[in-house]
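Section handout 9: paired folding examples.
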Amino acid sequence: MDTTRATLESVAARAGVSRQTVSNVLNSPHLVRPETTDRVRAAIDALGYRPSSAARQLRTGRSRVVGLRLEPVHDGINGAVLDRFLHALTESAQARGYRVMLFTAPDDEREIAQYRELLDTADLDAFVLTSTHRHDTRAAWLAEHDVPFVTFGRPWEQADDHPWVDVDGAAGTRAAVEHLRRLGHERIAYLGWPDGSDVGEDRAAGWASAMVEAGHDGALLRRLHARVPDGVAAGAQAVERVLADAAPTAVVCASDSLALGALTVARTRGSALAVVGFDDTPVAAAVGLTSVAQPLTEAAHRALDLLLDQLDGTGGARSREVLLAPHLVERASSRTP
């Protein structure tokens, strides 16, 4: 077995480029043509080349480490969404010579305290924030202290101005309604979260606008719209109430957890109720639940692009606001007899 350590020179030779081109791919990829970048990365993978992080930090003044908070787990079903984003972010960062450092904090205030400590002790280059919301003091603190960051989740207030990547939740629930209407459903209920959730309101808005365009009035929409905490049991209870009050033939849900509750009720009753969830978690695939899928891998890649633009000072030509379209994954739960 060849135990010779791969070097910048051996990668350059295999890819048929100069040593400087390999260095640019690793440190300033915006300077290199995509086809050349692909060739160099293939050579890096084939040779197992690993840059010296110590030497690179001395040369660039960067740790090449990005921080991200692991949030408390509230729901094992929907917790898989951020897990997939984290995996894609870590993979993308690693391919570009960065590492993701994970830390925990129970709330925003203590997350900011972690920023202070990590910037002092671990010399992190930047942060990725998730679960944005109104009055988000984390983004304000990082901006005030001139720390590069990007958010997975849009800023929900006009005054906020920072790079972000998000998924268009309203487009996702609208697509769910349009899918159900093509199957012949007209009375389509919505199980959403209580008031105060920006993501929840975004998803509810897509359902509501599609239903209004289909000719339904506000009085009926109020009967068809249930607001409940996220969870399987809450979804089951909510769909029981809506079925009794408004007799829908289909339901769109703000999460797969709520949808699983609705689906359980439908199957227990032997009902033809069509059910659509949101987030396309592994549970959705396992139980045959139609669900709206977020492009989490693309979101992670785009977030890292925006972050490295700040670190490299090359973000002028790229939009700092990225809103991605989700897509519907059709399964048996919406193809009811």
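Moving on to protein 2 of 2.
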Amino acid sequence: MALTIKDIAKKAGVSEATVSLAFNDSPLVNANTKAMVLEIAKELNYHPNLIAKSLATRKSNSIGIIIPDINIIFYANVLRVVDILVKQKGYSLVMAMSGNDPKRESEIIREFIAKRCEGVMVIPSILVPSGEPAKYLSEYRRELDRFDIPVVYLTSLYPVENVKYVMGDIEEGTYKLVSHLMGYGHREIVFIGGKEYIPTTSLRRSGYSRAFSEHDLPVKAENLIECENLYFSDAVKAMEKLVRERDDFTAVVAMNDEMAIGVLKVLHNAGIRVPEDVSLVGYDNTNYSAVATVGITTMDSDVERTCGFAIDMLLAIMSKEEIKEKHIRIKPTMIKRQSVGPVTEQKRLVWNGETVTKA
């Protein structure tokens, strides 16, 4: 038998009216009583939006979105575009930040359910351990299904079955960037990204490897560098270590533009010129890549189109329409700037093991 407000009131030792007021954050209920009622509701897995049948069916005209970190300019751009497009569709946007914590992501989903959001968009956490996505998704997806609330994943995905997503084709984009570098003679190309099991890193590595395969070249493990996170500081730390230990690389592929700026900073501090000594590419075509001291070649993920497709997919599901495409990857566009150049003859000698003065 389904729980009712009466069950919550009985366990809390208060009236049903008090429980209702607590759920609605009424100032007529003191803080201690309110906290107790909400804690009991959480323990019993009871959601305030089911207080009555009318609440269960009432539309809120709101859509929830979870982003990992508002400080990442790419996510901020996504949020800006989603907010504009959602409002154009007549809905309000409820935003929450997961901090790349999958447990927090689950908590936010429950908060969205309690707020009666009609649909949910999620930019997945990058810190879900290898093999663990299903564990974290199963709980909140069951809850979303229970309340008939659809979810669409945006700009990334969790590698589990029946996940609907819209994202840029980052595998193809990375393939094109690496092929572009190879067209300038580069072969010792370093990739700086996240953990290999993260889908957005894995897909980029796949594109990287495809470019090497087409040139009948092996992928060297030492050229695939993993960072704990995908921030400026992570790229700086990884690049400082690389510069101390090696001088044979001629190009760097950064996971995103923010990391590319970190790479550029370290190269500049080490007296290594871009692109004369080392070429550099980023990803996302954020403002970072355009205003850097050296304009950075990057891939434009077409945030507007990606977000538009995701919102249309979510609204279609909310309207019980048949979805023909559940997995959409938007083709990216290369933005060529000044950070890519040809390999110097001195670098070619370094490849062959000869001792030369570094270019």
